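Example complex used in Figure S2.
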Amino acid sequence: MPSVQITWVAGRSAEQKRKIAQRVTQALVEEGKAKIENVHVTFHDLPATDYAEAGVMVADQKRTA
Amino acid sequence: MPSVQITWVAGRSAEQKRKIAQRVTQALVEEGKAKIENVHVTFHDLPATDYAEAGVMVADQKRTA
Amino acid sequence: MPSVQITWVAGRSAEQKRKIAQRVTQALVEEGKAKIENVHVTFHDLPATDYAEAGVMVADQKRTA
Amino acid sequence: MPSVQITWVAGRSAEQKRKIAQRVTQALVEEGKAKIENVHVTFHDLPATDYAEAGVMVADQKRTA
Amino acid sequence: MPSVQITWVAGRSAEQKRKIAQRVTQALVEEGKAKIENVHVTFHDLPATDYAEAGVMVADQKRTA
Amino acid sequence: MPSVQITWVAGRSAEQKRKIAQRVTQALVEEGKAKIENVHVTFHDLPATDYAEAGVMVADQKRTA
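Predicted assembly (390 residues):
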């Protein structure tokens, strides 16, 4: 532990995810005393038609983030 | 908040998800005093080979729902 | 299926959750053709110190929703 | 209930998942007194670029498991 | 990986969970070629007022499972 | 979006979680182009009897991390 699950709309590159996984893992080790070998980080990429904010699908918003 | 994660077997249209996201968001705002701009709803579509009920994959059931 | 997981800061009554579970279930049955007996809805109540929006814990915000 | 969510890197066959779903369901019924018809098991297959252990993506590790 | 998240209504003993974690882990190792040291299993115990099936809270059902 | 769910064994202070939420949010904004106001981070604290690694409950391990 810990297990970290990140859910968002697809669109980030493998390199962006790689950096995020590193920084999230570092934060947990440095601030939370987690053992690095036990930190799991997963990315759940969703289509913009499968993520709603304020009742509106991201696909139907003006922006794409 | 709140974050709502809906997991099911793929097969619903974008329009069906759009309506469900609206109704779920309304329910949380009207009954749960959530602030609408903070309500996130995500749909996690799975293949029928990745969802089991009663130990049987949906793909192996007679029905597809 | 579907499985619905609702995560938020604790503070809603059993009656509020009961109504939300009913409305979410209805939405999935009516709009998504889900079989009612297979709809699972879970509420994950978190302390306000365990939910952050925009990098700020709800406990540290001016509001409590 | 219960709902079981299994998240890993894609690569297992439908037959492997079928057996795992059966065994997980049996364990919950036999050890946990769950009612079999209420046990839901879902598999969330991720690309190896979306799962990090110890801050390193599985795609960047020497092994693929 | 894999990460396994089991969500249900509270009421099982530590011993029951211990056995379930063992059996679930074994199933993933034996059937899914998972490396045992990477298997994480978490139990999310909910009050019976926080888990609904078919739109009805477990707390409001005749049975408690 | 994104929604970030961090699951671990309880034991970190509110201050530790506050710092982790900040750093995780920063990582998503800086590396992933997320809009800060849409980043949700939740902590799911579990008892050591509810988190197993390699088939062994953390409560039954020699260490507590």
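Chain C has one domain: 3-60. The longest strand of chain C covers residues 3-9.
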